[in-house]
Amino acid sequence: MEKKIYVFGHINPDTDSICSAIAYAHLKRVLGMTNIKAARLGKINKETQFALDYFDVKTPLLIENIKPQVSDMNYYAVPPVYVVDSVKKAWDIMTTHKRQMIPILYHDHKLAGVISISDIAKTYIGLTDGSVLKNHKTPFVNIAAVLEGKVLGGKYPHAYVLGEVYTTASIPTTTSLNDTDIIITGSNHELIEMALKCGAGCVIITDQDMEHLEPSVPLNTTCAVIYTPYSFFKTIKMISQSISTKNLISNQNIIYFSTDDSLDEVKEVMLESPHRQFPILDEEGQVRGIISKRHLINIQKKQVILVDHNEKNQSASGIEQAEILEIIDHHRVANIDTGIPVFIRAEPVGCTCTIIGKMYEDYNVMPPKQIAGLMLSAILSDTLIFKSPTCTADDIRIAKKLAQISEVDLNEYGSQLIGAATSLEGMSADELLYMDRKHFTIGKYNISVSQVNTGDFKSLFSLKDSILNEMKSLENKENLDLSLLMVTDIIIGGTELLAVGKERWLAEHAFGLYKTDDSIFLPDVYSRKQQIIPKLMMVAQN
User: Fold this and answer.
1) Contact present, 302 and 68 (Cβ < 8 Å)
2) pTM, full prediction
3) Which of 68, 240, 246, 505 has the smallest CB count inside 10 Å?
4) What is the number of other CB atoms lying within 10 angstroms of the CB of residue 58?
5) What is the 3-state secondary structure (H, E, C) of 423-434?
6) Does domain 71-120+247-297 match CATH 3.10.290.10?
């Protein structure tokens, strides 16, 4: 099965980040890339959830990190061996696939235990105890399977072997056998006749030509008769391998891994373990195969496509260990390193979905109503219904086209969308800060810039003290030099900018913020990318 390629935007995703991932994954599937999946790196905000609900689209898969996992290893797949299967079946699979160990499964494909070569070795000493099959509750069907035989004649009366195993030379002279017992005989007619008359529930006849089998048992025979090509002595040796594998897996302390375990965790356990091979289980607890220490040097990196970002500190944890295939973005080119040449499409437009909308046009693909609606939502959100200075003619053109496809009134829907996220009532300070937060490295300074679009400007001032305290806490926790919060109101027409940090002078110089004030209102400021970051960069450089 092909490995999944994940498409995702930045951490603390906004509407563009989520909708870009969904729309671009859909386009790639239309173009034939069936193994692609949209994902997200954080919680869905209220505005984005409104868009998803409005167009009836499911929330993308949440990815906590993109670090290599057990599922990225080229693990061994082995045929399933169940607890009722014979030890011989386990041995045959181990030798065929050259495995020192194999997992043993319950009927639901979940792990019961493991069997190693040393576990099986003791069953190859042959039948030294006539009670071995009975004592191990051996399924009767295992006998014919192990001996590669055919069952003719009558039938054994029980599903499991409940009696002793004899040979014609060891039949008691004083008592007859009962229908739970099994007797092994050679191909001599007199011995066969004696075996059939002794009262056993099963007679095993050895040394048979299975391709030209000529049964010589009476038609009224009621016991099961098994014909096997093996010799008399080999049959005696092999029949003990009919016992179930479950008899060799009791009282085990099994070390196993899950497919979503990180390789960092796996390496640590492997290096401390005396074992060389380990079962792996999927998220449902079912066995998928075996990994060994040698697999640690042969890892398939996760393949990803980045949308709406290209900075390491805005991407998934472990992104440096992934294989980046493409980047689609409308931000500055930053510090994502790639191990191979990648496809990059970056344009100075107001929204990533505008670029993706143009790509739909390039490939002559019309997005379905739901996808068009999501792309429209992203453009309206990022451009603040075309009021942001980042908005371009391309944003407006693509948005109008998408509004037609999605069958919505552009301005009416835009007001509903922005309104879905405007109320600050009931929101905590940390929710506001993390709703749409991005981290920037400007020279030697680590800066966090959060933005909230709202029409509920008055609620900000009732939350202001708790917001400032949360910003100070964030500054200490992440060792930030400057933490900013933009509260943008498109109705009033500007942004209230809150600033906290030991390098607050950057904001003071860039925006005229007084040392005695916690915030400043910036008229006609809507864009973090074009109106906040460039000014901070200019101050830092000078």
Assistant:
1) yes
2) 0.62
3) 505
4) 8
5) CCCCCCHHHHHH
6) no
